[in-house]
Design a protein that fits this description.
By secondary structure, the protein is α/β, with parallel strands linked by helices. The protein is 41% helix and 15% strand. It contains 18 helices and 16 strands.
Amino acid sequence: MKLLLVNTNQARMPDPVPPIGLSYLASAVREAGHACTVFDLTFRPAYEDELKAYLRDTRPELIGLSLRNVDNTAYPKTVSFIEGFQEVVRICREASPQTPIVLGGPAFSLFPEQLLEKLGADYGVPGEGEIAFLDLLQALQDGHPPTEKILHPKGGRQVNLNGLVPSWDLFETDRYFREGGSLNIQTKRGCRYKCSYCSYPLLEGSAVRQRDPVKVVDEMELCLEQHGIDYFFFVDNVFNYPRAHGIAICREIIKRRLDIRWTAYTSPGVVDAEMFAIYKEAGCDALDFGSDSMSQVGLSSMSKWFTVTKIKDATRWCCENEIQISHSLIFGPPGETRESVEETIANVHECAPDVVIAMIGVRIYPHTPLARRLVKKGWIKEKDIGLEPVFYIEDALREYLFERLQEEARKHHNWILPGFSKRMNHPMLFERLRAKGNKGPMWKMIA
């Protein structure tokens, strides 16, 4: 079949995000013998005429839309992306009315029924697309369209991660690297942790499946040779678990003497001095810790299994190895108090990270432990957890948090509040920083 995959994400602040999932899916489609092209909206602020012309010229037999995020998850300045999705569907229907439209991506995986109905698409593939999407293509090619609209892999099959190969040739890869400072790469899928609010286990499963470290570094080396990419972002929800897997990737980088740098999301729970020393030797120069809180009250509320002491240890060892760090925090979860807020702020200053990314309120996603707890307590009805974003904030702390965290941001330039901050939505600033050749996460540049 001849298909068109559309990357619907237009958010470019703080950086344009290379669509790694769509890149892996495109490779699976091509490997199966289908003709595949990509229309990427990331660098097209006004795209209607171009997309219509592209559809009329290429006449695809199927259109796949990748939906990355439902909203920006930032409170109180929450931005929904649903209208943007609707606009893409409208344009596709007008230009190619008989072509089936299939939805996929993380946003669809969290809200499959709601988005299928809202957007009026023909089919949807939640979770990993490399199997169910190919099954759909085969069924359509054979003239046996499925009766169901939402498609899952038959028999619970899972993707062989060692077969993942990105199709970066279909994207403006050089531009992503130039304007975003890194290229995405995935080393595993799944998360064993049970953070109360987190949707990752729903998206990728609770069992951790790992790619062969040699395959991971093969991909990095290929990107370095073909595109000159020398800075990578490991998009795993937790790069440093299992510890041995991340270490094996580092040792493979060191063995090949690759002149690259990288960053990743990490947990303060799986840390030691030796690990960070190996990371540094392998090219790590920045890490984002999903700490969420620096008080035991906050950590317990969000079902974090590590302690404040662990967070301090991780921060110290990174400092010793000259690895810049960001701590991502969520204020106002169930049980939060003024005392726990002040404890977190005091511990942040003791740790002195390069950047603090502070969110107010916990975004509620369906089927998470927190959502079930709040429904049971009567705080919200299950039917109200949907496309319209809902944030939990301890009511007694709402105004206090607004004032207190903005006060910290005024006093300390390295405090970033996505729900308030203008700095994280300033394209001219980012363009100037990238024009100087700065690489890595934007928070590192702001620091």
